[in-house]
Amino acid sequence: MKKILVTGGLGFIGSHTVVELQNKGFNVVIIDDLSNSDISVLNGITKITGKKPEFHQIDLKNKDAVQSFFKDQKIDGVIHFAASKAVGESVKQPLKYYENNIVTLIYLLQEMEKNKVTNFIFSSSCTVYGQAEELPITENAPIQPAESPYGNTKQIGEEIITDQTKVSNLNAIALRYFNPIGAHPTALIGELPLGVPQNLIPFVTQTAAGIRKELTVFGNDYNTHDGTAVRDYIHVVDLAKAHIVAMERLLFHKNKNNIEFFNIGTGKGSSVLDVIHAFEKANNLKLNYKFDKRRTGDITAAYADTTLANNELNWKSEFTLEDALKDAWKWQQKQTP
Ligand code: WQD
User: Fold this and answer.
1) Is the omega angle on the peptide bond into residue 180 within 30 degrees of 0, that is, cis?
2) Which of 180, 216, 268, 274 has the smallest number of CB atoms closer than 10 Å to its CB?
3) Could you give the dihedral angle defined by the CA atoms of residues 53, 54, 59 and 63, in that order, rounded to the nearest 10 degrees?
4) Mode of pairing for the β-strands spanning 171-177 and 179-181
5) Per-domain residue ranges for the chain?
6) Of 179, 222, 233, 277, which is best to mutate to test ligand 1, by the most ligand atoms within 8 angstroms of its C-beta?
7) Distance of alpha carbon 284 from its chain centroid, rounded?
8) Which protein residue has the closest C-alpha to ligand 1 atom 25?
9) Distance of CA 206 to CAs 34, 45, 51, 184, 189, Å?
10) Once rounded to an integer, what is the mean pLDDT over residues 132-157?
11) Residue 88 has pLDDT above 90, yes or no
12) Pocket of ligand 1 contains residue 175 by CB under 6 Å
């Protein structure tokens, strides 16, 4: 049974990926420092799959801890989620982001090389494209100067991994996520944003739950069908499954290059108003919202061309936007006493 290390495995996307790995018969070990996740997620995963994953509370900035972890383990592949991910916070605290997202990646790759672990899946982001000239966005779209230190850590991360694949036996796949949303259909795991949510969907569900007074729509003067910004919202379970097929591609030596990049989205763009209306319809409720000015750093529109992932990974998204909004609401209701 192949053993896969999932760093950040108690986080939003990490936990859903652990579930899918276990469902596929993999042996999973999680490293998480619990800085932006909760130990209760381990029980949620166990309840869904019936198997409690091995868990180590380790801060990947602690090089000695990373070294001793790898000494005691026989790992067949690594899926690396552990990173800080709040765009706004990264602008205010760039050094925290460069330390937590880059230094940790370097320590991880060093220990992988020492311990001959060669299969690596990297959590990247559509933010590397900035505002793409052409839509839908393909993997060949130019990488634009990052709008935030967070986005820059993803670009730098991809460059570090690419350089390492040239001088070692490392085989890597970078998955460029569009906008992950929703929760596991069992509502046993989901998104746990700390404090005031920065992302749209948790703010929508907390508004519907009465935790937030109203949703502010950031800008309705964009050059889109209804003036609000367009994104590609993908169900977190579809996104999790993409990690399994990507890891299997490496384990079975099906990769065509030492480093490959795949856009993981639905291929469909939805505006903020589309999401609001879909959420109201899917959950039979009215959402309280108002329009305000644009949020600094936001782009007008982004949605994926998923041809490469469809053909090479034999993967495509299966859940609809409505499915994801129903699952997000079901999860929120379980969180709201
Ligand atoms: C979506 C849209 C907002 C909140 C983020 C990360 C990015 C990537 C994907 C990881 C935008 C609007 C939001 C609100 C609003 N994640 N909005 N009111 O910014 O597209 O990307 O997720 O890699 O790195 O930045 O997602 O959910 O913050 O915003 O109107 O209260 O919703 O302006 O148009 P974003 P988001």
Assistant:
1) no
2) 216
3) -140
4) unpaired
5) 3-180+233-265
6) 179
7) 28
8) 87
9) 23, 23, 31, 17, 16
10) 95
11) no
12) no
Question: Does the pLDDT at position 172 exceed 90?
Answer: yes
For the segment 233-258, what is each residue's pLDDT rounded down to a tens digit? 999 999 999 999 999 999 999 999 99
By the 10 Å C-beta count (0-12 exposed, 13-18 middle, 19+ buried), 223 is classed as exposed
| CATH architecture for segment(s) 3-180+233-265 | 3-Layer(aba) Sandwich (3.40)
Q: Is the CB of 198 under 6 A from ligand 1?
A: yes
Q: Bridge partners of 5?
A: 29, 78
CA–CA gap between residue 187 and residue 179 (Å, rounded): 19
Q: Cβ(222) to ligand 1 under 6 A?
A: no
SS (H, E, C) 287-300: CCEEEECCCCCCCC
Give the predicted TM-score (pTM) of the model.
0.97
| Residue of minimum CA distance from atom 28 in ligand 1 | 199
For residue 83 and ligand 1, the question of a CB distance below 6 A is answered with no
Q: What is the pLDDT of residues 95-134, one digit of tens each?
A: 999 999 999 999 999 999 999 999 999 999 999 999 999 9
* Ligand 1 pocket mutation pick from 158, 298, 299, 300 by most atoms within 8 angstroms of CB: 298
Place of tokens 């090389």: 113
Torsion of CA 318, 276, 190, 243, to 10 degrees: 40
d(CA 96, CA 84): 8
* Closest atom, ligand 1, to C-alpha of 154: 23
Q: Please, are residues 9 and 28 in contact by the beta-carbon 8 Å criterion?
A: yes
Q: How far is the CA of 200 from the centre of ligand 1 (A)?
A: 6
| Average per-residue pLDDT for the chain | 97
* C-alpha 28 to ligand 1 mean position (Å): 30
> Is the distance from the beta carbon of residue 295 to the nearest atom of ligand 1 less than 6 Å?
yes
